Amino acid sequence: MEDTDSQANKICIKIYSYQNEILVAACDAELLGKTLKDREMEFHVSKEFYMDVFGDEEMLKRAMEKATIGNLVGNRAVKCGIEMGLIDEENILNIAGIPHAQFVLI
What are the two backbone dihedrals, phi and then psi, of residue 24, each rounded to the nearest 5 degrees? Predict the structure, then answer.
């Protein structure tokens, strides 16, 4: 993957590979490092888990074409998963108004 300083690159993407599984973790860049709090739930969007490169929606979609597992946070990242048919809108969890979704392909 390529990392550029383009203004269009507003999604943080990290790819993990283990045996036959490929996990794509992605979040909207402005959420990186923040903790989302909603009632009793706290969700930390950690740099360690989500950040490897900055990309745009097309870069994220190319990464998710190879993914078996996905973890997406933020409007842009989750929208990509919906557009690719990997995320059903009724399965999106909103934490402090921010969408979070996961998928596993069997």
Answer: -110, 120
